[in-house]
């Protein structure tokens, strides 16, 4: 995977006419048409607006070519100062895409008339969108089209010290999550995935352990192994990555957990064609956990961090686990198998047990877990669940602020009835599933040991036609920006 690093040049002042003439591509944002006044070529931009009958704010950017020698292509908008992060990122995506179609390598950005905090948010959104757009994604076409990649942003009207390091780290993490998710399943097998992670680990100086088939048998991780047992290649396993900062004050560590089903056929309960197509992305929980881990370690956060990834294929075959099987998980819980397509909660059960034995101060898991969550929310939001109801306001607010929006679901005790089994400790899922996303979370909760604070993200927004917020591809890599906001701004727990 090739990642171009976007260079940023910041100028506190507005561009001169000469500077505008010197660059072919511009993105400009103003709080109102009056603020356009005072920049070079203001008359043309204002004229264009009034021709189009624009009044106050633009949710779709305007485009205009200036009458200079380069015919500079200006994409501009007037936005409401109360704009949400999601709307801002969406607008930023449209503006960046418009410049990308012009094959822009270097883009000028002008922000004028906003108070500093908002100006910073706006520039941040454009950098996020530019980073998402510039990232290379898997492409197997024999005829390679040369894509011009955006390499430089020249920011006018605002200069900040931090250099948007976090936004760039998030863009890198998100690009990694999407890239891995888009790889075809005959390439990204658990073995190939593990190899790629090993490379990343040595490049970034992470410690890495891998619990393979034998190690998991020793740990009696029957829930994980039930899913893996149909695979002819014994390459499934649990990856553990560790990051320790040079100095840290906080005692506890944070553990990120991800579901990494490299292909989900449904198993014995085979999926129909319509639902199987796209199931190579059933590992996106793991790639989001990994991308988040990458972004946080690039930021050199001052707390200890681990990342646990459950990598397997949910295969068909004579050895595949089947409904009515009774499986014993690593913590001794007996599970009555009901539907083999509910494999995500099986591999996560043992991974959560092992991760929570580390006594972290917080576990966050990510999984493309249930269709029920998508039925409930569509694919614009993801669902969140937690065993700490007091987290709800922070969980929601992190979604609003990051632009990767989530909504919490209940986890009350009485839902447990849906998982009561006549023959084992618990049912894997209900035969006829109402609220399967809630039952799945209830099921997972029992494997989170020592009452560890836990957040479960059911990634309904992992794939959204046409892209979502700042991300231009259908595969969204949703969760990286969200988690950094949750851990670094909301300071959960
Ligand atoms: Zn499944």
Report on this model:
- The chain is of the alpha/beta class and 493 residues long.
- The chain folds into 2 domains: 7-161, Leucine Aminopeptidase, subunit E, domain 1, CATH 3.40.220; 168-489, Aminopeptidase (3-Layer(aba) Sandwich), CATH 3.40.630.10.
- The chain is 34% helix and 19% strand.
- The protein contains 16 helices and 17 strands.
- The protein has helices at residues 17-21, 33-36, 42-51, 85-100, 116-134, 165-182, 190-204, 213-218, 222-228, 273-276, 284-298, 344-356, 371-377, 392-402, 436-445, 480-489, and strands at 7-11, 25-30, 62-65, 73-78, 106-111, 152-156, 207-211, 237-243, 253-264, 304-314, 326-328, 334-336, 362-367, 382-386, 406-408, 426-427, 454-458.
- The strands form 3 sheets. An 8-stranded mixed sheet has the order 7-8-10-9-13-17-14-15, with helices on both faces. The chain has a 6-stranded mixed sheet with strand order 1-6-5-2-4-3, with helices on both faces.
- Strand 14 (382-386), helix 14 and strand 15 form a beta-alpha-beta unit.
- The radius of gyration is 24 Å and the shape is elongated.
- The two termini are 34 Å apart.
- The model has no long low-confidence stretch (mean pLDDT 95).
- Residues 264, 266, 314, 341, 343-344 line the site of zinc ion.
- Zinc ion binds at residues 264, 266, 314, 341, 343-344.
